[in-house]
Amino acid sequence: MQSTLDDIIAEVKPLIGQGKVADYIPALAEVPANRLGIAVCTVDGKVFKAGDADELFSIQSISKVLSLTLAINRVGDELWERVGKEPSGLSFNSLVQLEYEKGIPRNPFINAGALVVSDVLQSRLSAPKHRMLELVRGLADDPAVISDKRVARSEYQHSDRNAAIAYLMKSFGNFSNRVEDVLRSYFSYCALKMSCVDLAKTFIYLANQGRPLGWNKPLITPKQTKQINALLVTCGLYDEAGDFAYRVGIPGKSGVGGGIIGVVPGELTVCVWSPELNKSGNSLAGTAALELFTSRLGRSIF
Ligand SMILES: NC(=O)CC[C@H](N)C(=O)O
């Protein structure tokens, strides 16, 4: 495993320069483009890493998996009355489908869906931002995980499109709380700062029937774990979910910070980070690294 990870980092490095670091907020635009890391965590808790696997980065939309997990945990199947389970085929922050589908987002991993999920958490939890922090600290087994206030504030100052999405859903009756409050929580989840190692450990519950590392009780049921992994395969990479399934072939979730997590059910989680993105907003070198990873180890689910 260790030599495979070292080889992957060396082989993928030349791709740096072909993508574009997210620049919609200054705090993300400043991240050095040449970073590249990979970490693997196995269901029995072994961690392997290479490159910049311990450096912290903004997890952005990877947090949508955590908020979905919390929401499923709290409300169960009721959630699916307010958000769909189908791929959108459109970019993560698109508004067009929402109008003709009457304010019901296609899935929980596009921004519209994640905002509905955040709205549910806002209603159900007394301190949603704090609860999320507590959850990730527990999952990553790292009490030092924080949400970067500067990133969250900057996102809020550039939130016109996400606010438009939320207000459109509100006009259809699919949004209960004040838009500003939910946006603040949503951005605080997106601004979580974690490393590849933290994230590989955090998501091991998705490879292990809902059981986090070192916990004595499951976070979600095996059935819910299967459901989240299915949604990751079909919707985790936005309008590139098909290409990702074709090239990488495992459940995955990307974020505009350049991170991507992948799940090999029953076996391991893998997290890659490279800040330069392709046109769909997914890490360019990160996707290539995962493609090599699953191909070399013969680990696709297909
Ligand atoms: N794809 C992403 O990572 C998007 C997250 C970003 N904070 C947004 O809401 O636009």
Automatic annotation (TrEMBL):
**What sections of the protein cross the membrane?**
none
Binding site residues for substrate: 61, 111, 155, 162, 186, 238, 256
Q: Which InterPro entries match?
A: Beta-lactam/transpept-like, Glutaminase
What is the name attached to this protein's record?
Glutaminase
As for family, the record states: Belongs to the glutaminase family.
| Key words of the record | Acetylation, Hydrolase
For this UniProt entry, the molecular function terms from Gene Ontology, in alphabetical order, are:
glutaminase activity
Give the lineage: Bacteria, Pseudomonadati, Pseudomonadota, Gammaproteobacteria, Oceanospirillales
What EC numbers are recorded for this enzyme? 3.5.1.2
Q: How does it assemble?
A: Homotetramer.
Pfam families in the record, alphabetically?
A: Glutaminase
Among HAMAP family, the record links this protein to: Glutaminase
Q: Which reaction does it catalyse?
A: L-glutamine + H2O = L-glutamate + NH4(+)
Q: Please indicate if the UniProt record lists Repeat as a keyword.
A: no
User: PANTHER family recorded for this chain?
Assistant: GLUTAMINASE
